[in-house]
Queue: 3 jobs
Job 1
Amino acid sequence: MTCAERAQLAMMLEVCAYPKPGNVDRCHDYDTTRLEHFLGSMIFSRNALDEAERLGASGSVGKIFHSAVEETHCHAGGNTHFGAFILLVPLVMGGDIPGALKVVAGTTVEDAVLFYRAFGLTRVAVLADDEMDINDPSAEESLRENRMTLYDVMAYSAPRDMVCREWLNGFALTRKGADLLHDYGPGSESISKAFLALLASEPDTFVAKKHGIEVSRRTMERAREVIDGVRDIREFDELCIREDINPGSTADIIIASIYTALGEGWEWDS
């Protein structure tokens, strides 16, 4: 299996896993974003992922990332894998976590500019008071004037975004998720368990951007209650859906965890 194939498989396995509280899966959709939107994005990401694998560390992270977002911006389901590409592109370019760390350390200002252009194609949730304004025509000029590489952009966003934070902390949650998959064993049930364990350990920043940090923390506490046997996971799932709570950042990290675990021999089809 190539690295690009492994990345696509990881995206497919994540969205099909059930139950995965609050997120689109094989058993329920959202009004405007459905399972087939995620699967479509998975299919159309192949060219960019092949390019990432072919070029490796010599390629441009920003250019490949922009291609991945542009090529998957082909349906009415909105952003499906923006956060996942932040992790998958360097992972595929580097092959694994140590390789990805070398890739992200070598990013350039032009990578940052291309990332912002890709950001502008999406409807990704941001914190208006904290994030650099992607709609500001002077944003690219500011990046160049301040000589901000894409790594610098991730560092700027890291305090408020757990996916960006992975670039700085050595892909720590990605590593944790992969270890959980190995511990839980083969098969799709392990993905649901690993997702729940990560959700219980870290406030999901996508939830925080959409509903505020207190809702994110309460969601984390409810996930812990499921693990402790106090709350049923399907009841938790239904509650999240009713309250429009979808822990998308945790899902993005789980995709990277599945990619990593697959490369280490974790079996998905047993």
Job 2
Amino acid sequence: MRAFVVVADSFHTKLLRRHLQSVDRYQVLALSRHRALVFQGDRDALDEITVPGVPRTMAEALGEELTDPHLTVASYGGVGGESGAMYHGHGGRKDEIDIDTTRFFRVVDRTVFEHCSRPSGLPLILAALPEHHQPFAEISHNPSLIAHGVRIDPFGIPTDELRQLAWRTFQPRYRQRIAEVLDAFAQARAAQRATDDLAQVGCAAAQGRIATLLVAADRVIAGRLAADGRIDCGDLADPEIDDVLDDLAERVAATGGEIVVLPDAEMPTRAGAAAILRY
């Protein structure tokens, strides 16, 4: 994403909309036997989020209710956290370890659903060692959990590498969602309920007739959207002039329409904006 600076008497929100839109956003649950972290991101960034109510460790989840209170766990090495765990006890404790792990996974699954997935509505990618995927999937009741996650120790790699792996996992869903949006635009256009003519898009935005607005992320059209939907061209050097595409997005959002910000190459037209009309 290229850097962009604009000075105008209105807020420029298109890049922020792209960052916040749900079409290419996802959450990642980084999980081990004794640790859980939640991340949120898109194709460009992945950041850890602190979610009240979601335990970060087995101790937070189970407290003093461990099956074997005498069992201790030591974690070693790893960039950004643990890469392995060594168990110290009196032997024959595998069953107790498995019971506590299952209980921990249940608490994590329930709290992540309640405090992350349900409020955000975003898909959830599990990042964990291969042996933890099936046990977690078997106990999970989270409908947002993607079937195929990232099979690696998430605490042993840099966050950016985790982002790359997560996006690779999420990308097929993203492609499907974009295909659905583009297909909806094509069908609406065939039924004369869509347009990429900027003058028509401006009028429809002013009248509250746009259900979905597709906007090119890196395209800038200098101008201003008047109250009646008329588009006046201008120069970005003028502080009263902004990006028309940004103004259109703000107007459509104000009337309850959906805005989808796409890379230029994925737009269905070269106009910079395309609208699916309500009527």
Job 3
Amino acid sequence: MTASTFIFVRHAESEGVHERLAGRTPGIGLTPRGREQAKSTAEYLARFRIDRIVTSPQQRTRETAVILAESLHVPVEPHDDFDELDFGVWAGLTFSDLDEKPEWKTFNSLRSLTAAPGGESLSDAQTRSIRALLELHSSSKGSCSVVVTHADVIRSLVAFLSGTPLDLFLRFIIDPASVSIIHLSDMAVQIRCLNRTG
């Protein structure tokens, strides 16, 4: 029973992370603190034998992945199925503006049945990320892959693999530059680490 190891890394701190919903808004990179966080994460990951680094196409994830790759000497592969949730017309809005919208509150309390206006549902994002995870496992069993992606994507993956309903997925805290480790085989899944930081 050959297990693959998947190390999910949330992108490090990005510009405006506390003020607005970044989503797929272009041009949002890491802050200086975020670059230091990514370097610290790279130091931790040096204990693993990493075979590949896969990243969401967003700038903040690509910048995080490059910092990891420079330290670990592993090439970076973009993968659209690990992209950020498409927040549609909400992308780029401030959280104070979003808090005034009733549909934003519904979205955050009932993620399994709602979608952002003009965007995608969390269940759709979960489906594409699980599909990508299984494809990576199938194509290279026994390997160790780092996947640099976003908090909601990691939460949705952990929810699926732990049998947790999507409406409860916000119970999983996924901090910037955190590490979550999953072992996956054809017979079993093990969540070995969740939200390791520092």
